[in-house]
Specification:
Order of helices and strands: EHHEHEHEHEHEHEEHHEEHEEHEH
Shape: globular
CATH architecture of the largest domain: 3-Layer(aba) Sandwich
Oligomer: single chain
Distance between the termini: 17 Å
Number of domains: 2
Strand content: 5-15%
Length: 393
């Protein structure tokens, strides 16, 4: 193994995208020289944060195929979005159907509320890749079933659920449908009308190319829910209760203006680059990565093979090696950033049989990843596997 490694190589885009597009970096730098006050004061300034928030909201609505800008709600993370949606959509006494590959952002809420006797939930059956069988849903619906929750692309395996097919089932049954699009938004095209989802949660700091501390909830205007955060909105301050109008009803507290500025600049990049090109580049890089890792002795890939219906997450285990140890070697010896462990999704690891192994080593490309970096990563992983195999022998 090479001591010191090469220049840093980033394969952790499923956690946070890096690098950001140049226009995003520049927009954030520029906005930090301005007052970031929103809907609270009258300032004579060239930078109007209120205008950016309105413009970005409208652009996001178009990006996701929403009917109107007020269907886009600013939050502080995908977790915040999921808390707002789940607590609003799922009433006490309800029954929920959920995929086996959910993140803690969903499962901890479900377990918490089930412990308090507020709801019941059942896990949908899935194949060994984690792909949910839509045909099984009809037989699992109950009179009190109120919501289906699906992690569209698994942050553990990259498996992509048939979201539109499941949405059609939920619509026919007249129940709510909540999508976790954390690993989809910004990497694959999204049309909420085709998906027929009631709500969709996503972060801004992953493939959407913005900053941490910023999330989005799409909430169909046909469905009003109780707000999760209550407080100052800079709107209708004479009221003793939360205003009813969107988006103020759901956006208490000071917004992450820098994050929204970054997201607005990212919209420029998406428009200039085009989603088809973004998806093509990253799927090709992912296919190359999977192809190079297949067949390495002692290494087991988790999740589906390369193809158009998967995400950019590639996870693997190595016989007899703790994922954290393996990831540390990649970092210290080869300068490769990965993420080891359970990825806040122990339910998914239970499905894949990796929970007791400490999870997986996770790789995730981004649009700015190069083929040379992919080849360097494959070569490094092969060398590390050979090193551990020789140690075991």
């Amino acid at each position: 193994m090479e001591q010191g490694g090469a220049a840093p190589v980033y394969f952790d885009n499923a956690a946070t995208s890096y690098p950001k597009p140049p226009q995003v970096v520049e927009a954030v730098r520029a906005c930090l020289d301005q007052s970031l006050t929103v809907a609270r004061s009258t300032h004579r300034a060239t930078f109007r944060a209120d205008d950016v928030l309105r413009r970005c909201r409208a652009r996001l609505a178009g990006f996701f195929g929403a009917d109107a800008p007020e269907e886009i709600i600013y939050t502080y993370s995908s977790t915040d979005s999921l808390n707002l949606a789940l607590n609003g959509l799922v009433e006490d006494g309800s029954h929920v159907l959920v995929s086996p590959l959910e993140h803690h952002s969903v499962m901890r809420q479900l377990h918490h509320r089930r412990k308090k006797g507020q709801l019941e939930f059942d896990v949908l059956p899935a194949d060994h890749f984690g792909l949910v069988d839509p045909a099984a849903i009809q037989g699992m619906l109950r009179p009190d079933t109120g919501c289906i929750i699906i992690n569209w692309i698994s942050n553990v395996s990259g498996v992509m659920q048939p979201a539109a097919e499941i949405g059609a089932i939920a619509a026919d049954a007249g129940i709510d449908y909540l999508l976790d699009a954390s690993q989809v938004a910004g990497s694959h095209p999204i049309d909420v009308a085709r998906l027929q989802c009631t709500a969709m949660a996503l972060p801004a700091h992953k493939a959407m190319m913005s900053l941490p501390g910023m999330g989005i909830l799409y909430l169909s205007r046909s469905r009003e829910i109780e707000p999760w955060r209550i407080g100052g909105t800079g709107h209708r301050s004479e009221l003793l209760f939360q205003p009813e109008e969107r988006p103020h009803r759901y956006e208490s507290g000071t917004p992450n203006v820098a994050g929204i500025v970054a997201l607005d600049a990212a919209m420029d990049w998406f428009e200039q680059t085009g989603m088809p090109e973004i998806t093509r580049v990253c799927l090709e890089l992912t296919a190359s990565l999977i192809s190079g890792l297949e067949g390495i002795p002692g290494l087991t890939l988790i999740g589906p093979q390369a193809g158009p219906d998967r995400g950019w997450v590639v996870s693997f285990t190595v016989d007899g090696v703790d994922p954290i140890v393996f990831s540390e070697v990649l970092s210290t010896e080869f300068g490769i950033s990965t993420r080891p462990g359970l990825h806040c999704a122990p339910s998914a690891h239970a499905h894949y049989g990796t929970l007791e192994k400490g999870g997986t080593v996770r790789l995730s490309v981004g649009f700015f990843t190069t083929q040379a970096e992919v080849e360097h990563c494959i070569s490094a992983i092969r060398e590390v596997c050979e090193g551990f195999s020789g140690t075991a022998a």
